[in-house]
Amino acid sequence: MRPPEGPFTIPSPGEGASAGTSLVSLLHLCDSLFPIGAFAHSDGLEAATSSGSVSTGADLLQWLTVTLDETLRHCEGPAVRLVCEAFVEGRFADVLVIDAELDAIRPSSTQRRASLAMGTRLLSTWQLIRPHDTLDAFCRVRGFDGVRLPTGFAVVCASAQIPCRATLEGLFYTRLAATVSSAMRLMAIGQAEAHGLLARTLNRVPCVVDGVLQSHDPPHSFTPALDIAAMSQQYVGSRLFRS
Question: Between vectors from CA 75 to CA 203 and to CA 218, what angle results, nearest 5°?
Answer without folding.
Answer: 120
